[in-house]
Amino acid sequence: MAALRTDLGIDLGTASILVYVKGKGVVLNEPSVVAIDQNTNKFLAVGEEAKKMLGRTPGNIIAIRPMRDGVISNYQITERMLKYFFTKAMGRSIFKPRVIVCVPSGITEVEKRAVLEASNHAGARKTFLIEEPIAAAIGAGIDITEPTGNMIVDIGGGTTDVAVISLGGIVLSRSVKVAGDECNEAIVRYIRKKHNMMIGERSAEEIKIKVGTAYPREKDISIEVRGRNLLTGLPRNIRIYSSEMLEALEEPVSHIIETVHYVLERTPPELAADIGDSGIVMTGGGALLHGLDKLIMERTGIKARIVDDPVSSVAIGTGKALDWVNLLESEIISSDSIRTNY
Questions:
Q1: Number of folded domains in the chain?
Q2: Domain check: are 169 and 270 in the same one?
Q3: CA angle, corner 70, sides to 179 and 54, nearest 5?
């Protein structure tokens, strides 16, 4: 039987898309990758199946990521991808869903409009936007309505958002296009330069997850990697150690630390004191990089903690914000952190 209206919360990430269905929680977590047949313009695969095709497709098939640096880089593909995920999450539905989509804090009005239009054309009845740091804080269980300063460091695939939140709004924020993807690219560059070997994006991500580190490990661990020798052009196996990853990831990690430092330096004294007491809250898949919390604590002198489910926290926060949709629709309240399309 077809369902009545289902409201959705969408974490439209560069690396993955998470869909929260009201009353059910996070029902989808798939890579934001699409495989398309260029001859027929048909979708061949979406999500996990399409990700397996990255770097392995014949000439007539392309596997692409329509999101880049936290914003839409290919509008038409994003719209079709959203339509696919809406249908997969809801099944058959009599009514179009109301949707809240989270966006990086630093995006432009044009980029916001692109997200709103893509969501509405994909099948949403009405789309609202919420900024990622606000959604991350809600998902982490922080009461953002209190007159207390909280610092959120949300490290995703394309962007890192650092924000100070108080009384339900963002007091100060900075968004930089350095996050998980940049770390992957840094690993590719390092292995090409030091080992004369070319590896793919998926291999770099696997290295980052298994032996990547931002802080010296107690024990130097390693992983075997297969790639193409740039001197001979032949396949080659090498062993990569976590101590090497410390060097490879130094530049992107330093950029993230500098962003945290930048926001802290400009935080009003009262809120800075609150953050000193409560600590820095880390969310997003990038927060799982080994030792990053220790490094932030060492560089700032403020304890940093990773939330229980950093990958899903933004989607969970976006989903919880669905409770406010009726208020937003009737225009009873307005918020700087949640914007609508009317």
A1: 3
A2: yes
A3: 80
